[in-house]
Amino acid sequence: xxxxxxxxxxxxxxxxxxxxxxxxxxxxxxxxxxxxxxxxxxxxxxxxxxxxxxxxxxxxxxxxxxxxxxxxxxxxxxxxxxxxxxxxxxxxxxx
Length: 95
Description:
This protein is of the alpha+beta class. It has 1 helix and 2 strands, in the order ββα. The protein has 2 domains: 1-63, no CATH class; 66-95. The radius of gyration is 25 Å and the shape is rod-shaped. The N and C termini lie far apart (54 Å).
């Protein structure tokens, strides 16, 4: 699982709420959203003597199986094919 912040969902209004699904444009086709959570805290800043709202969005992501096929299986299959072809033509030229 991996969690990362999405810069498009930061909001500074005091009483507004943005659902984490609003951030799905940040998630590519290679990821599945398994869980979402929102934590809202009212914090006090002592230096400026003001209250501010901190909203924390958490997205739990899981890679889709297609990621492994596209990024691992296909390139290694191509590499093995190239090695076999080079090997085949190399032995033909030796005879």
